[in-house]
Amino acid sequence: MLKTEYGSFDGDKWERLCQICFKHKYEEQVYLEMKASPGDYGIEGFTRTGKAFQCYCPNEHYTKDELYKKQLKKITDDLNKLKIYEKQLKKRLGDTLIKRWYFVTPEYSKNEIVAHSTKKRDELRKLKLSIIDNNNFEVIPTDIDFLSPYLSTALGITNHKLDISPNKPVSEEEGLVWKGKEISLVENAQRKHQLRFPSHTNGIERKVDILTEKSIKHFLNGNFLLNKWENDYPEDFEKFLRIKSQFEEKVIEICIFPTDNNNGRLNEIESSLFTKVKDNFPFLEDTMITNLCNQVMADWIMRCPIDFE
């Protein structure tokens, strides 16, 4: 399984997702899927305009170096099939000449993949295969963004749960810079976290600091998630904002009434929020829902919606 910012995929899921996207994306160029029986001969589909595609996603988890080696081998092996199965491919391609051979993988991290693709392109051109446009032939590695803008549709069709996550968490330095600029929000969080404890709690200052740091971390990491969601799934994102706004009004009302258990009230609000988001977005992984709720709760703690007397 390969974890991406859109969720985890194995080979079968990835190929199915790609096929749905190819059929939508290249409908006007007459996309034709190559069925696996008796073999795909190095391509899993092509267009009449000369684009050929090979999908790759490992079923096992690999380190970046291991994945890089697997991807190099896959490119090499499948391009060699163009020579080995030239006659069989000619029958399927007809008068279509392959101008671009796309290696479609969820992600690749090394520029050497591009260098290897260029090397293999030059080797293939020299072979003068009858199924290749030798003057224009290119080998092009691509990642999951290549499937845009049909990725959302394909994820829905395949019932694949969405799990957008930041490429990298907010660094400690970025957190410190933010704290320096948003002192009033940090002070709000410190005050409210302190009110979650009974007054006689030992080590309360250290515990408040820990909770405040967690709120800042959840808020900043969640912002990356929200930005990505807004860009890629604007309709769902707008729906999320509407639900958040409605629920926020309810939270303000709840917090008007006094309670002798602020921490319990906070946990009840968080639990209700999780249920609300999960009910409205059943196609999201629980991990993404948790990250969304963490961001919202941190936002409400640092601003005014959640407050304690």
Structure notes:
The chain has 309 residues and is of the alpha/beta class. It has helices at residues 11-25, 64-84, 86-93, 112-127, 151-157, 172-181, 183-194, 204-232, 234-256, 262-280, 286-302; strands at residues 2-4, 7-9, 31-33, 45-47, 51-55, 100-104, 138-142. Helix 8 crosses helix 11 and helix 10 crosses helix 11 (286-302). The longest helix is centred in the C-terminal third of the chain and has 29 residues, at 204-232.
Fold blueprint:
Layout: E1 2-4, E2 7-9, H1 11-25, E3 31-33, E4 45-47, E5 51-55, H2 64-84, H3 86-93, E6 100-104, H4 112-127, E7 138-142, H5 151-157, H6 172-181, H7 183-194, H8 204-232, H9 234-256, H10 262-280, H11 286-302
Helix pairs in contact: 1-5, 2-4, 7-8, 8-9, 8-11, 9-10, 10-11
What can be said about this structure in brief?
The chain is built from eleven helices and seven strands. It has 309 residues and is an alpha/beta fold.
